[in-house]
């Protein structure tokens, strides 16, 4: 369990993380989402004692990271790909890390097999591809058989096989009752993996709820209506107080009412309806709805510069 | 690379017991040693240092003999030739100390280090122990090797006593150990390789020539308290400007000051 309480981090005047309070529970994969610069990595580094909080605290199983006697037995972390000396072999790198926490030597072989790197264990880390480096990071995180795992953008640089594999690893680890916190900017990846979502924007918490609750809460009254009398039906629905947009082939996107209300209105006014479906929002829509107004680095349309002669 | 598996049955971990402070420091030292011995640059630098030591000792020894044969009084005990030569070849050993910390910042492995050993003091103490121990053993071995090389070519112009050899070996071992700790401290403070090497060169070599230029007596007096001067006094058993005990104190002071600066930087900075 990770308990974050009033955690803040200032860089000069900028507040990277602003009074964040959230609890990451065991047995679930918790997705940690937010736009670039929202403070995800900074929060993770503060949990791990790498960055000093400006205020507040982060506890892992009731302790600050620095207080853990052999931290790797409690917490495994995959931060960024560059985490070892490029001149060191994978096995030597893991062996050093294992020794630092008094872990048995055979754990190194175990985790190398788990991530599928046993054949290249004697190769220098500097020769590894990004995907292999990410696997090495997972191996290092699993060395101490920790109850808490933090993964910062773990699918970065992985091929589809690797993405599928890491998704399985995270699901398995959570199913074993461990706490799994994974940050990502790949929303579709999260939609398939995470049970629970913590979304931050500009360092502030904007959502902390289960994936299903989040999607359900945002999907109320979103319907697609296809009818040969599209524009006429649109007027009827708008008069009933709904919000309607007319798309291609007069397909209506209707928000503000349930399916039965729309169907009844169409029937009453004699409009044939060919399709009336509940439109499930994607995580993208929910995400942009929650964070869109607060994007840290909002792109601007590119304008052609006019150069004065 | 083979197909990865799901995290399967795990080997039993060693029981969490007897995890006292000293045992944890021992684990941290084993970690640092594995890192230092596991990279090729360490071996290359030590090989370079050995080569320079032998070559330098042969050259100086041969020169001493040639001058002696021609009637000049240049007889020098072979261990002194070897020890003086170390003041140049020590650069290879000090680079090992510098890289031990700056390469961690360059490669990002400092985060792995601090995640494994969150106590900043333990990280620095472990690094200091490994580097000081390694430097002392290497320095002693190089002086022995240099002495044998120099004595072989200098012949009767390089005769020495056992006490002279013992002093050169011990003095070099201690001075290299302390200078390595100073290098570690500067590296931890500055974090980058180029800046650390530049600072070391200035403190160890350049300042002793630069300070007297200003013509201020107190600046010139300061030269005696630079780590290079102290190391020289420690190695060669000179009574100028002070004896070995004072030299040891001065050099240890530099090492402690460097390590303290590194500790404060490591504690206060984000990683």
Structure description:
The complex is a heterodimer of chains A (309) and B (271). Chain A has 309 residues and is an alpha/beta fold. Chain A folds into two domains: 2-216, P-loop containing nucleotide triphosphate hydrolases (Rossmann fold); 220-279, Alpha-Beta Plaits (2-Layer Sandwich). Helices cover 33% and strands 24% of the residues of chain A. Chain A is built from ten helices and 13 strands. In chain A, the strands form three sheets. Chain A has a six-stranded mixed beta sheet with strand order 5-6-7-3-8-9, sandwiched between helices. Chain A has a four-stranded antiparallel beta sheet with strand order 11-12-10-13, covered by helices on one side. Chain A has a three-stranded antiparallel beta sheet with strand order 2-1-4, covered by helices on one side. The longest helix of chain A has 16 residues, at 160-175. Chain A is elongated. Chain B is mainly alpha-helical. Chain B contains ten helices and no strands. Chain B has helices at 21-37, 40-69, 78-107, 109-116, 120-154, 162-190, 193-210, 217-222, 227-236, 244-268. In chain B, helix 2 (40-69) runs parallel beside helix 5, helix 5 packs antiparallel against helix 6 (162-190) and helix 6 (162-190) packs antiparallel against helix 9. The two termini of chain B are 31 Å apart. In chain B, 46% of the residues are buried. Classes of the chains: A alpha/beta (309), B mainly alpha (271). Chains A and B meet through helix 2, helix 3, helix 4 and helix 5 of A and helix 1, helix 3 and helix 4 of B.
Spell the H/E element sequence of chain B: HHHHHHHHHH
The radius of gyration computed from the alpha-carbon positions of chain A, rounded to a whole number of angstroms, is 25 Å
Fraction of helical residues of chain B:
over 70%
Question: What overall form of chain A do the CA principal axes indicate?
Answer: elongated
- What do the pLDDT scores of chain A average to? 87
Binned, the helix content of chain A reads: 25-40%
Put simply, the count of helices of chain B is 10
Structural class, from helix and strand content of chain A? alpha/beta
Order of helices and strands of chain A: EEEHEEHHHEHEHEEHEHEEHEH
List how many beta strands of chain B DSSP finds.
0
Oligomer: heterodimer
The total domain count of chain B is 1
Number of structurally distinct domains of chain A: 2
Give the second-level CATH assignment, the architecture of the largest domain in chain A: 3-Layer(aba) Sandwich
């Amino acid at each position: 369990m990770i308990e974050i309480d009033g955690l803040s981090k200032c860089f000069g005047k900028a507040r990277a993380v602003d009074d964040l309070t959230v609890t990451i529970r065991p047995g679930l994969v918790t997705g940690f989402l937010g736009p670039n610069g929202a403070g995800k990595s900074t929060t993770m580094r503060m949990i791990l004692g790498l960055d000093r909080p400006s205020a507040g605290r982060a506890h892992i199983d009731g302790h600050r990271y620095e207080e853990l006697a052999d931290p790797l037995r409690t917490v495994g972390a995959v931060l960024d790909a560059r985490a070892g000396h490029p001149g060191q072999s994978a096995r030597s790198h893991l062996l050093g890390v294992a020794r630092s926490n008094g872990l048995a030597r055979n754990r190194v072989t175990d985790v190398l097999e788990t991530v599928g790197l046993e054949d290249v264990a004697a190769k220098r880390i500097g020769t590894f591809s990004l995907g292999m480096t990410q696997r090495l990071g997972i191996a290092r995180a699993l060395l101490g058989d920790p109850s808490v795992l933090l993964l910062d953008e773990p699918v970065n640089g992985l091929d589809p096989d690797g993405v599928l594999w890491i998704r399985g690893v995270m699901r398995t680890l959570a199913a074993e009752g461990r706490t799994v916190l994974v940050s990502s900017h790949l929303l579709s990846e999260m939609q398939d993996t995470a049970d629970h979502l913590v979304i931050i924007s500009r360092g502030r918490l904007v959502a902390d709820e289960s994936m299903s609750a989040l999607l359900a809460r945002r999907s109320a009254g979103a319907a697609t209506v296809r009818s040969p009398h599209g524009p006429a039906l649109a007027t009827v629905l708008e008069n009933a107080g709904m919000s309607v947009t007319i798309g291609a082939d007069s397909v209506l996107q209707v928000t503000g009412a349930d399916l039965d209300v729309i169907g009844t209105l169409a029937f009453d006014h004699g409009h044939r309806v060919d399709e009336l479906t509940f439109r499930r929002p994607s995580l993208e829509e929910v995400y942009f709805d929650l964070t869109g107004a607060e994007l840290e680095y909002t792109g601007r349309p590119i304008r052609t510069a006019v150069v004065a002669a | 690379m083979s197909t990865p598996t799901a995290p399967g049955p795990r080997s039993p971990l060693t029981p969490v017991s007897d995890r006292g402070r000293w045992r944890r420091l021992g684990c941290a030292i084993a970690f640092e040693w594995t890192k230092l011995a596991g990279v090729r640059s360490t071996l290359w630098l030590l090989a370079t240092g050995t080569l320079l030591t032998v070559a330098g000792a042969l050259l100086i020894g041969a020169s001493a003999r040639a001058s002696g044969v021609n009637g000049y009084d240049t007889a020098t005990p072979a261990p002194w030739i070897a020890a003086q030569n170390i003041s140049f070849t020590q650069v290879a050993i000090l680079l090992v100390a510098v890289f031990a910390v700056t390469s961690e910042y360059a490669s990002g492995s400092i985060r792995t280090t601090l995640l494994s050993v969150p106590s900043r003091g333990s990280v620095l103490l472990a690094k200091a122990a490994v580097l000081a121990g390694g430097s002392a053993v290497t320095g002693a071995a190089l002086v022995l090797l240099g002495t044998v090389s120099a004595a072989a070519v200098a012949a009767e112009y390089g005769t020495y006593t056992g006490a002279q050899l013992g002093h050169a070996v011990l003095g070099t071992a201690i001075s290299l150990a302390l200078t390595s700790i100073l290098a570690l401290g500067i590296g931890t403070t500055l974090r980058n390789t180029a800046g650390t090497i530049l600072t070391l060169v200035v403190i160890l070599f350049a300042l002793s020539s630069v300070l007297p230029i200003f013509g201020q007596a107190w600046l010139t007096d300061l030269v005696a308290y630079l780590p290079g001067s102290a190391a020289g006094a420690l190695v060669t058993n000179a009574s100028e400007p002070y004896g070995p005990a004072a030299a040891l104190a001065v050099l240890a002071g530099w090492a402690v000051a460097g390590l303290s600066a590194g500790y404060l930087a490591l504690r206060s900075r984000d990683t």
